[in-house]
Amino acid sequence: MAAQTRLARELDERPDLYDVYLVELLTLFSDKGVAIQNVATSDQHVKVSSALYYLPVLNALRQTEEMIEQLASLLLPIEALLTHADYNPHLGASQELTGLFRNMWFLCILFHFTSGEEKGPMTWLVPALAKIATKTPDLVLESAHDAASDIEYSTVIRHEYAHSVSAALFGKDVCSNYCDRSSTSIGRS
């Protein structure tokens, strides 16, 4: 992760590669987010019928937690890339880039990165997300009538995982964060 962050910081020498690297980072973020959900939901199907099975289940939970921390750390190179003063991907972003940002934000909400409750080594997360938000393109177009269907048909959200985490909390967070962001975006248009 340190090498990716260093590359993002030093990419000002090659601004023609900003978009290419951003697409790669956002794609990696989405892929890792989907992988975490797949691992977590496959582990839920393990039947715990005796004490002997608790250890593998606990190890799988630890592995999922580590994967989520690795996903969060991927926000560091994204933030580093977006802090270049001469890089403004939010202005005139392609549909592909907008979709990748939307997926990133869906995953940030799903994994509770936007909760603001980070303590200890994850305290850097909220300021990093704030910087990323300043360079995020509008996620919802004025012509979009049904933001809920964007969530429902999103390819990065595994509904089995979302429901297992907390259906009520997930729905509340997604709707409040996504709708707040969309009304701000619509207002800027």
- State the helical fraction: 55-70%
- By DSSP, the count of extended strands is 0
Largest sheet, in brief, is: none
Mean pLDDT: 76
Range of strand content: under 5%
Morphology: globular
User: How many domains would you count in the coordinates?
Assistant: 1
Unreliable stretches: 45-53, 167-172, 181-189
- The count of helical stretches stands at 8
Radius of gyration: 18 Å
* Helix/strand order, N-terminal first: HHHHHHHH
The end-to-end distance, rounded to whole angstroms, is 35 Å
**Structural class, from helix and strand content?**
mainly alpha
Description:
The protein has 189 residues and is an all-alpha fold. It has one domain (2-188). 67% of the residues lie in helices and 0% in strands. The chain contains eight helices and no strands. It has helices at 2-10, 18-44, 54-73, 75-82, 95-110, 125-134, 147-152, 159-188. Helix 5 (95-110) crosses helix 8 (159-188). The chain is globular and about 45 Å long. It starts with a helix and ends with a helix.
Identify the notable features of this structure and list them briefly.
disordered C terminus; mainly alpha; globular; 8 helices; 189 residues
What's a quick, concise take on this entry?
This protein is an all-alpha fold.
